[in-house]
Amino acid sequence: MTIREKNEKFESLTLIKEAAFSNKTKGREKQEELDHIRTCYMVDRDRILHCKSFRRLKHKTQVFIKTSSDHYRTRLTHTLEVSQIGRTIATGIGLNEYLVEAIALGHDLGHVAFAHMGEEVLNEFLKDGFRHNEQSVRVVEKLEKEGHGLNLCAEVIDGIKNHSGFTNGIAKAATLEGQVVRYSDKMAYVNHDIDDSIRAGLLKEDEIPKDILHILGVNNSERINTLVTDCIENTLNNIKKGDIKVSLSDEVGASLTKLRNFMFKKVYLGDILKIEREKAKFVLGHVVEHFMKHPEEMPIIYQNIAEDEGLERAVADYAAGMSDDYCLNMFNKIYVPKFVIY
């Protein structure tokens, strides 16, 4: 028996029957020889962790652009927090921790420079719109490894695709593990964005509605603990009743939604960051405009995409992969004079 088979046997002894078992995966688009040590989801986690798109997350904005402090979240630290929360929930329920980790680490690979400001630019630019969850799938299926993709398992790709959105009408991931990541994402960003907003002087703790604090907790640690505990207990109760889904209780779920709405009004779409949002959109918009006129200046992989799928798709892929720093440097290279001739 290989070490991988021992790991798969361990899953059969420790996970609930509704979990996604590694030896029952729907598999990869291209069949591969099984690893002797790692389960398929361990392999996928490692592929994501070592890919270039993952490393670029360290220079992609979460909320606050080009801050002077090292303590604000980036897209990378957000991803790690989602992974940590998701794994805790998974172990509490009895789900596959490695599948949760793989989905969590890959869920934001398609996010644009300057966070949702960049996403707005590309959403207006592409005829069919731009959604970062779909771009994350495109990254792992097509763009990574110079156009070969990472060849991930179907369950990981499904979880990445369906991690976004917070309304009942949004499609759910096929696995409970994917649904865990969807909730973990919201738990992470709402709470850490409060922390960053207070640090930036844009928000005071006492501005948060008291009824929310009463239910979720008065600080970041208490709120995360409330949400994680509630998600575990409520999901186990759902499964016990035959309702196979991940969810929060009505009271806690409503409070999280209210807190999220509060953050959108106060911080994400608030007037304080409006000027910086417009600057970011100006920069990325002009970079996109330049490469529409000069596609020959893009790396060869994107020139090939332009031939196969059209120039707009290629420019969107190139722009979506840029970190904040890379985009700013590109804007500077294209539009800012380097010297003056008298």
UniProtKB/TrEMBL annotation:
SUPFAM superfamilies: HD-domain/PDEase-like (SSF109604)
Superkingdom: Bacteria
Record bears the keyword Oxidoreductase: no
Example GO molecular function: hydrolase activity
Domain HD span(s) in chain numbering: 75-190
SMART domains given in the database record: HDc
Keywords: Hydrolase
Keyword Cell division annotated: no
NCBIfam families: PRK01286.1-2, PRK01286.1-4
Protein name, UniProt field: Deoxyguanosinetriphosphate triphosphohydrolase
